[in-house]
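Submission sheet (multi-component)
Chains listed below:
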Amino acid sequence: MSQKPPTDLQSPFRRKLLVGTAALSATALLSPGALAQQFPTAKINTTGLAVTDSEVTVGILHSVTGTMAISETGSVEAEKLAIEQINAQGGVLGRKIKFIQEDGGSDWPTFAEKAKKLLVNDKCASVMGCWTSASRKAVLPVFEQYNGMLYYPTFYEGLEQSKNVIYTGQEATQQILAGLDWVEKEKEAKTFYLLGSDYIWPRTSNKIARKHIENKLKLKVVGEEYFPLGHTQFNSVINKMKLVKPDVIYAIIVGGSNVAFYKQLKAAGIDLTKQTLMTISVTEDEIDGIGGENIVGAYACMKYFQSLDNPNNKTFVPAFKKMWGEKTVIGDVTQAAYLGPWLWKLTAEKAGSFDVDKIAAASPGVEFKGAPEGYVRIHENHHLWSKTRVGRARPDGQYEVVYETKDLMEPDPFPKGYQ
Amino acid sequence: MIFGYSFGDLGSILVMQGFAGLILFSVFVLMALGLAIIFGQMGVINMAHGEFMILGAYMTFLCSHLFQTYLPGLFGIYFFVAMMVAFLVSGALGLATEWLLIRHLYARPLDTLLATWGLSLIMQQAFRSIFGAREVGVELPPWMMGSLNVSDTIEVQINGLFVMGLTLMITAVVALLMFRSRWGLQVRAVVTNRVMSSAVGIDTRRIDRLTFGLGCGIAGVAGSAFTMIGSTSPSAGQLYIVDTFLVVVFGGAQSLLGTIASAFTISQSQSTLEFFMSGSNAKVLTLLIVIGMLMLRPQGLFVIKVRK
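Outcome: structure written.
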């Protein structure tokens, strides 16, 4: 690494001087300052990150303009809330978190450019960001080249693992398998109709779902179809499903298409309180656009629902609403985004350092007991151990939790037998 | 038994598929009508067409809220009021756009393309700032949801019928305006020969402004109607714009009849193909058909002879 920090020490005298000034400014800051004194900047930051005696800089990199703003807004809000809460508790290693927010603009090359800016110019100690797999794939080489640390919040298709990324959402098997097992047992389902938007995440997820249905559960897939992103006409496939009459419709349709799909399903007289439909792509956020009355009765397989009944969530939801308005809803990804800053803080404290290499090495085993979803732990493969839950959509746009796995599900980004 | 389906099933599916195709046809016509008027009559390619539609959708969203809050008793009919509001607001913005932007660029058709594209970005971000980046849900009166049971196996969507009726009405009104009114006569005169029309005393600037306003207003109504079947979000207009252009270009830019014929061809082939193959493949095949036809007939299906 060519960027040597300015505080890199040339003489013992200078070291003393520096430590002295650090201590001087620290005493004025009371208890966090005392912590900062305990962790002198030169020691916890040996690679020239933007860390001072009182502040540490992180980046937030999401789309707040363009077509993805619709999804990423919640993530930005959750990350800002987490940072504010961490600062209120005294920050990380005695340093307040300062964030620099950049806009990916729903454009993948822009994501890569902004990631480089955050790492090279701003020297962010970590970055919370990205939403789509495409944007993550675009920034991954940047994070690996400049040795940054990315906390990525979205549930995604798996098939990836990097020293420079912590995946706080579920990879595909965590989201799919338990839900299918449940629907087989609970609904005595025999036949499945798989639907999806036409890109990598729905296709990979449906591939895993199909293998599980056919090879493990020994049941039947009676149809599998994909639609271009933004597709708004689903009448033909709805007719087809009426003809085939599958026990379960398994839908991974995303974005604006979702609204069209559920509205047309309802208009076509398919009542989701009678026809079992399971989705892994509709969170409370999406229901806001679809309208609760149009999706009531559908099952969603996630790790977090806003209605979860646990002490952590009972403080998280009001805090979120207080900061962002009474009407905001919190979906699965929003919660996962909230985990990012906290996991980074806990890891930095475990490592006693902001150095990216040390954070990456210390991450496995870090547990966050205050997670709104309950409890999470980072796996060796930089994904999270977390539970899988099934929720049923209520008319008010919230999910009622009907099932949760007893144990934490192990993340398995390269599942054997499912590829 | 064919493909494992019984004949009774197949019969009713045939009916419902036919109906699905007709709904798609109406949707396409409604989307394309506004654009066809502007593109066909003025030669202006309005890239912000989708955003004018979404403006109509947001007006519907506002109306549904206002009615729910202040006039809950009349919620059942709010949709008609919302469509009027959508027409007026989108139309007014269209007039303003023409006056501020488009009229300075008539001599530079490619620049109008760029200018209206810029306008579409501005409008998207304005929606985002005003209404928020998230999708908004437009609640419909209960009578508009659900379906009519024609027989045990045949069901007809009410909102589909509504869109069809609306399309029929608007098309009829536009056709009357174009071919039976004085204004329509002037529009057609301007299209055929601008210089000559202005020489005989037609106020071509006024005609242009009204035409643009009308096109945008119809886009607003279309957007309002689409809250029944699609999403309302700042960038949702982008979902419609490609299909819209496809219909207009395929139909032959200057012909209303062409637009209708092209909407019919594209919608029927798409909904039929979708039944026999996956949605993505159906789209690919539909586009291939359109490309093939355009190679044979570059001017589109119907062409009106225009003196250049």
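Remark: The longest helix of chain A spans residues 69-88.
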